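Much of the work behind modern protein science is quiet bookkeeping, done one molecule at a time. The protein below has been through that process, and both of its lines are reproduced in full.


***
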Amino acid sequence: MAEVVAIAQDVQGAEVAIPWMEKAKATYRCLLDRHNAVANACNLKYVPVAIIVDESGLLVRAVGGVNIGDGEFRAQLSSWVQTGDVPTEWVEAEQPQPPRQLTEAEAEAKARFQLALVLLERAKREEALAELKKAVVLDSQNWLIR
């Protein structure tokens, strides 16, 4: 049987992510990605997003936005979790494209974001915020940096 796992992507840590999980009344496993590893691996720039894989690690739905408040999507997800049968809508959806090469500005923004993470871990908050501000200017469409 499949399992739903939520991954909060927040550099500020559990103290910021936990209230959102509590508000959602999550009854499933919730993880925290402070280092943006999932977004980097999938070339993501926004949340929320659904990455739905089966037990063998194969993608069963194109990576993309999700609204758990959408009754149709919620029903599809519940059905898949309970039966393992991939909904027709997921199969017929546009297949994911391979990640594209980052522009120079996007690559620099990504590097500045990673530097900000290191600075935050070393309690250098003001320096980290300065790097994040630079990163946002370089890649204003990346909502994970904001």
